[in-house]
Request: fold
Amino acid sequence: MAKQRGLRFPNDFLWGTASSSYQCEGGNTNNQWSRWEQQGHILSGETCGDAANWWREAEHDFNFAEQMENNALRLSLEWSRIEPREGQWDSAAIDRYRAMLLDLRRRHIKPIVTLHHFTEPLWFVDRGGFAQQKNIRYFIRYVRHIVESLYDLCDFWITLNEPNLYAIVGYQLGTFPPGEQNTLRTLHVLRNLLQAHVEAFYAIRSLQPDAQIGYCLHYRLFDPAFFFSPLDRSAANVQSEIFNWTMLQAAESGRFAFPFNLALAAVPHAAGARDYHGINYYTREMVRFDPGAPAELFGRRFVRRGAVRNDPGLDNTFGEIYPEGMYRILKMVYQRTRGNKPLYITENGFSDSVDDRRPRALLEHLAMVHRAIQEGVPVRGYLHWTLVDNFEWNQGWQVRFGLIEIDPETQERLPRRSASMYGEICRANAITEEIVARYAPEALESIFGVSQDAQSTVTAS
Ligand code: BGC
Reply:
């Protein structure tokens, strides 16, 4: 038999999944998302309920991660459980997280812990949340409490998940709580989140000097509808600059770019306040210049006709599956940060309830990660969103990102084909031709440049 080709990843590459507390734990009514549900904002009318039941039984699902030979797992801590009322710490909540982290470590899975993944205790929200600069101190106090309590079990922290998305959907688009549509407020929230990250970074650094500390941003590709149209190109650029690069650039330098710097004060000590860049990448949108759309910055976004798509979700948010975007984003982040820190893919995934696009999509995205690594981009890990189906914010259970399917009624689990495929990749630390041929032969050509027919002749001989 001819020698099998393979894309091998660096030794010590981190392979795992990513998740968040509110989406998985269940049984929590003390944060703003629970209130948001009660106010009837979930498009499906559902409530989070038991979610994936992790507060009681996360370990059950960690078992799947172990079976897939993952060596990392990203989860978040729920501030609203740890400090249910201002200044009151719940030691039982900390004990529960200790048990989860210990369980992971026993399985040789490195815990990667996010300190803020969209949710906050109601008392913090009622004080104005991150729209108020003076509230940052509450977050820092919580961060210190966590690190003092858990530093022996975790040395890889993500301070904030996607501050850019959090600010835009909560304060500009109004589809996430607090449901505002206020540009100035959006900008202040962005700035305050950056300050919160920087202060959290130095607080953790002083408590645990060897820890890896960073944050992750949500990156999307914005491409012009018509490549040769200068108007489409500049409309796409504007979207990309604002969504993708404003926060990164501010985090790198401490200063927001013009014109945002007219409204936003610089954040001292921001430059240098990270040990890695966390990258969450899902999709791309096409942009057409539209003089009638000032609210969308004169750029109408849409999904390319003929694109391979995610299940779209109730408000059509989940668009194109575009593997090359992974490579392009990795290269751009690397260039824009002048290669100053390693990169981790802290989220990437697909909403595909029947799992007929995920295997190929996952393989092709990983091939793009590999390509970037070959070209010198220091990517150190890949965390797939997500291990088990979970409660997808304002879409409820209507989109399914899990490698493992869940029936929320019965809490039964059913691993999708992608789960066994991902397990094989993690075990091999490589994408082999054999794995591709078995799970998504139609991707042989894009990944190895071999046609499906040629491959069957090779393996048969
Ligand atoms: C968020 C996750 C979410 C995922 C899929 C990311 O922006 O961090 O919490 O479930 O996208 O929508």
Remarks:
- The first strand starts at residue 6 and ends at 8.
- Residues 32 and 125 are 7 Å apart (CA to CA).
- Residues 20, 161-162, 165, 218, 280, 347, 385, 392, 401 surround beta-D-glucopyranose (CB under 6 Å).
